[in-house]
Structures are given as structure tokens and as C-alpha cells.
């Protein structure tokens, strides 16, 4: 979409719902577009919105490139995200990761942590996603 305003996404989702006889999808994969998230919450409140982890992980080099040892940071963040086997272990590992690399005050990482329930696999494992974790295109289940 050329215009990524909330109202534009609301219009799109309302049209989609009309075409689908009012049936909202159970789940929705998308990138981190805040306008889309708000429109989805307004138009399809029962739909589970999930951020595409591929998009997030792809942003690591550009978001953390200014830090010394950014390649190590990227590797460790990936380990924490993919290898935490419980929510508690993710939280513990994430905080340890931030402390070890001096990233406690990084806004991007703080924001990601606040929204962990819509992108970190361990927070989404109680929903059925047909094995999908990411997509390079927006998809609906």
C-alpha cells in the first residue's frame, strides 16, 4: 500500500472482512508497521497479530552496527530468541544478553522486549501457526 496510515489499513481490513463474509483470520503475520497493528486491533480484535521474526532479525545489523562486537551481538540475540525454552528463560537470557553487551539503554531492543509476545517463538507456541515462524511477505492464516 502506498499510504500506510491507520485509516487506510482499516479500510483495507474492512473490505477484506466484507469479502470473507465477516470471518476474520485466526492469525496474521506482518512486519512491525504500527499503523497496521492498530488497524488490525480495531477491525479484527480476535485475530492474533504476529510480527515476522525474519523482518526483525534482518534489522539487527542496521540497528546494532554502531556497537563494538555487533556480529557477536547478532549471534547472541539469535541464540536467546531461538533457544529459550520457556518464557522465564527468555526473560532471564534477554536481560543477561543486554547486560553482557551494554545494551540496557538501547531503545530498539527495549521496544522489542515490550512486544515480545508477538514475535518471540516461545511466547507464541500456544497458538497453532502451521509451523510458520516468518514470512517475507504478509500472509493471513
Automatic annotation (TrEMBL):
Residues 1-59 form the MULE transposase domain. PANTHER family: OS01G0519700 PROTEIN (PTHR47718), OS09G0290500 PROTEIN (PTHR47718:SF13). This is MULE transposase domain-containing protein. It comes from Arachis hypogaea.
